[in-house]
Amino acid sequence: MDKIVVKGGPALHGEVKASGAKNAALPILASSLLADGKSTYRNVPDLVDVSTMLKVLRTMGCGAERLSETAKDVCEVTVGAGITPEAPYELVKTMRASVLVLGPLVARYGRARVSLPGGCAIGARPIDQHLKGLKALGADITLTEGYVEARAERLRGATVNFDLITVTGTENVMMAAVLAKGRTVLENCAREPEVEELARVLNKMGARIEGGGTSVITIDGVDALHPVEHAILPDRIEAGTLLVAAAISGGDVLVKHAVPEHMEAVVLKLREAGCTVTTENGGVRCKAPQTLRPVDVTTTEHPGFPTDMQAQLMVLLSVAQGTSVISEHIFENRFMHVAELHRMGADITIQGPTAVVKGVPKLSGAPVMATDLRASASLILAGLRAEGRTDVQRVYHLDRGYERLELKLRSLGADIQRMKA
Ligand SMILES: CC(=O)N[C@H]1[C@@H](OP(=O)(O)OP(=O)(O)OC[C@H]2O[C@@H](n3ccc(=O)[nH]c3=O)[C@H](O)[C@@H]2O)O[C@H](CO)[C@@H](O)[C@@H]1O
Ligand SMILES: C=C(OP(=O)(O)O)C(=O)O
Fold first, then answer.
1. Under 8 Å between Cβ of 228 and 29
2. Does the keyword Metal-binding apply (predicted)?
3. Which of 48, 163, 168, 188 to mutate to test the pocket of ligand 1 (most atoms within 8 A of CB)?
């Protein structure tokens, strides 16, 4: 098992490229199931989660591979006869986003058997809204032996009003509705750029979707879709993490390909903290201030401040001059990084869904344990600023969602290495 070792101190400078977005790549790969033939995707990030999704597709009988070692960002998914519409527990337990095959499978094959994902370190994460949407489209849903079984002759268009805003729920039901008979109206949808991107890809495949990226999505079902070629959009969370790396290290970094319109809430908070954030050369640049200012933030659905950037911003604020208040309103248990940050000298108190972060003049390096994906990134960011050496264990969480973060940070001047734990 690997660990990441960071020696704090160097200010990061230079340019770095954002990779393709995990949260766009996963539903888009799953959407390949909706059409026979070969779909080709470019700018696919080299992540464990993407490999898991390719494995899920192969387990069902699809061809699903990265093109070659030299064109690692290109993935081909080929769908033909003989698909087994099942996603087993062994794979779903390693990546809950595997549940994204449920909608496409029931729409296309009339049946699906997908392991229930269960919770994870950040919360319970039920999928009741996915199931509510599929039921409204006419799927017969049963839960047996830890699996969701869905059946339908052909799905029928319907109106679905989600009880809460869910990203993968919106995506799953949208993918199901594209092949349903008639019109589906999805209300209270997630408005994340990745949902909009999925709608764009489905339309390229021949679907008729309007309103992707808004809270009401209208889908006129079609009889069949065709495969697609598409380049995955840049990862706004990875880009945000790299901007925080610039800010916390006292540096100045341009994240190329970062899309400013996708990152407005993060950019606003970095500016409130005193950073100079500008859009230039097709990217976003962040220059650290002399002194970081405290900032209050509440995580909400897009276009609000993303929960996937909460841990990283918290680390930045842990060395600001003053007290910040961070409220987490998406996941009930997303402060697992706090206990590890205490070990590095941070002064953070948790009161229910709120963390009160009192800025300290310095952090000190320590051995720490990553508990989830963004917690891992936050501990590495803390290590960039800390005096001495920080060993971040359990890096497999990081590898789910960051494409060799340590190499990107090293290219900017960080003293960081991957080692055997
Ligand atoms: C692969 C992917 O895109 N992952 C993202 C997606 O996860 P994911 O789609 O799983 O997150 P959701 O938007 O569904 O979850 C939002 C909230 O709704 C709850 N909920 C969700 C569905 C449901 O049926 N019932 C229910 O109660 C969840 O427990 C959570 O509290 O959006 C999250 C919120 O922006 C991000 O942190 C994840 O990075
Ligand atoms: C929570 C995340 O991902 P997932 O939904 O894949 O667990 C994340 O990307 O921070």
1. no
2. no
3. 168
Using only the alpha carbons of the chain, give its radius of gyration.
Answer: 21
pLDDT tens-digit readout, 301-359: 999 999 999 999 999 999 999 999 999 999 999 999 999 999 999 999 999 999 999 99
96 lines ligand 2 (CB under 6 A): yes
- Give all strands of the β-sheet with 276-280 in edge-to-edge order: 13-17, 252-256, 283-287, 276-280
Tokens read off for 349: 């108190």
Query: Which of 165, 407, 112 has its CA nearest to residue 304?
Result: 165
- Considering every ligand atom shown, identify the ligand nearest to the alpha carbon of residue 312 and give its number: 2
Question: Mind listing the domains of the chain with CATH numbers?
Answer: 2-19+234-420 (3.65.10.10), 22-231 (3.65.10.10)
ipTM for the assembly: 0.99
Q: How far is the CA of 321 from the centre of ligand 2 (A)?
A: 30
pTM for the complete prediction?
0.98
Q: Which residue among 125, 235, 266, 299 has the greatest number of ligand 1 atoms within 8 angstroms of its CB, and so is best to mutate?
A: 125
